[in-house]
Amino acid sequence: KVTVTLQMRLDKVIEYHRKNPEALIVVTGGKGFQETVTEAYAMEKYLIENGVDSSVIVKEEKATSTNENMRFSKEILDTYFEGDYRIAVVTNDFHIYRGVHIAKIEGFDNVSHIHAETQWYNIMPCYLRETLAVLKMWVLG
Question: Mean pLDDT for the chain?
Fold first, then answer.
């Protein structure tokens, strides 16, 4: 099942896809605690149900963290493209700074971003959690 927060991100992917139908979409994420399918599978299913052709979707189903999302996605994309290529990190507004920073740490050179808004009732918990994650990233790398 796709959460409202994830749906908002995926709707941004769909919006981008309509403008750039040839762009490859990497959906990334493994199976979390008490989940029956991987996050990547749920995202792929949502995208296909909303008009995205499955031929442009690539699944990465091992990642359990943002670092792994980026690392494993880079491994996949490096097999598709030779030389330089550009990526757009699609995530929620509160996660842009860390998501892009981690993408660069994991070896992506040309990184832009597209962000989805956060529902008003999730602003406080999401930004608090993300602040702690950014502090951890700064301290522990």
Answer: 95
Q: With contact defined as beta carbons under 8 Å apart, do 56 and 17 qualify?
A: yes
pLDDT at 3 over 90: no
4 vs 133: CA distance, rounded Å:
22
- What is d(CA 64, CA 117) in angstroms, rounded to the nearest whole number? 23
Assess contact for 19 and 13: CB atoms under 8 A: no
* End-to-end C-alpha distance for the chain, whole angstroms: 32
| 64, 3, 86, 79: CA torsion to nearest 10 | 50
pLDDT digits (tens, 9 = 90+) for 85-127: 999 999 999 999 999 999 999 999 999 999 999 999 999 999 9
Name every residue whose Cβ is closer than 8 Å to that of residue 140 and which is 6 or more positions away in sequence: none
Buried b (16+ CB within 10 A) or exposed e, 55-75: eebbbbbebeebbbbbbbbbe
